[in-house]
Amino acid sequence: MSNGYYQLEHGRVAAVDGDCVFPPLSQALTEPNGLIAIGGDLTAARLLSAYRQGIFPWFSQGEPIMWWSPNPRMVLLPEELKISSSLKKTLKKNLFDVRFNTAFREVMIACSKAFRDGQAGTWISPEMIDAYCKLHDLGDAISMESWLDGKLVGGCYGIKIGRMFYGESMFHHVSDASKVAFVHLVNHLKNQGVGMIDCQMKTPLLTSFGGREINREEFMQNLLKLIESSS
After folding, report:
1. Among 81, 85, 121, 197, fewest CB within 10 Å belongs to which?
2. Strand extents, DSSP E, 35-140
3. pLDDT score of 17 more than 60
4. Residue 66 belongs to what domain range?
5. Cα–Cα distance between 99 and 215 in angstroms, integer?
6. CA distance 18 to 161
7. What is the DSSP string of 194-220?
8. Mean of the pLDDT values across residues 144-161?
9. Cα–Cα–Cα angle for 16, 21, 26, rounded to 5 degrees
10. Are residues 28 and 62 in the same domain?
11. Do residues 153 and 52 both lie within one domain?
């Protein structure tokens, strides 16, 4: 397979030329929801180009790279963050040493090993870990971590472009460790002027934090404004 894409047209796969150029979002499939291209690679330039266009990679190890832009899209606006009463109590206890950007690769590795209901295996392959660690080295990917007794017990990571953040994954080894890290991350992003967090797909956890679905058109309108502005 070349570094070009394979665009999906009417359920068929067709070659698409061009560096970091994706098909129009209007051509994304409805089933499976949001699949827009197959192929390419995970270079920093291609990943950042994808995120700027509202597209992200998601595929299992051994499969070709698949690119997605689902409709609707799950998002969280930092000012709409909801914290349950039980989590507020945990936060007040200061059980964890919360750190920013001190163990990015370790967070990704832990996320790759996290069990998720209804999912066999992981999309966070060694190839993905290396690619996102490159983005971290460039300053485009960040992590928030919960530590307990000197051990990493929870965390989350994602991509930041301008005032837009794209959440990728989270994990925990101790109850509430990932939730605490996530709350700290949202507050950190809010202080930096981030206006929207892309959560990709709807989950009960993200809904409990105040996440909600919006249509692709609204998502892209907000995204394009935010990625071009600075905090």
Report:
1. 85
2. 35-39, 56-57, 66-68, 73-76, 97-100
3. no
4. 5-71
5. 34
6. 23
7. --EEEEES--HHHHHTT-EEE-HHHHH
8. 98
9. 80
10. yes
11. no
